[in-house]
Design brief:
4-stranded antiparallel beta sheet, 4 strands, 2 helices, KTSC_dom, KTSC domain-containing protein
Length: 65
């Protein structure tokens, strides 16, 4: 399902690294994110809301772009 704010979601299972590319071009990488959270984010109908409630503030992150 497309998102109004998120352009792409990529997950590295070995590193537990969640990469979120926003439509603005800004990229955040969240560390130590369980695969379950990634799958739930991908499946959510409102990805921005899921990200805000279940990822932001819960996992260490780095702005990379």
């Amino acid at each position: 399902m497309p998102s109004a704010v998120i352009n792409e979601i990529v997950y590295d299972q070995q590193k537990e690294l969640l990469r979120v590319v926003f439509v603005t071009g800004i990229i955040y990488e969240y560390q130590r994110v369980p695969e379950k959270v990634y799958k739930e984010l991908k499946a959510s109908l409102v990805k921005g809301r899921y990200l805000n409630h279940h990822v932001k503030g819960k996992y260490a992150f780095e702005k990379v772009g």
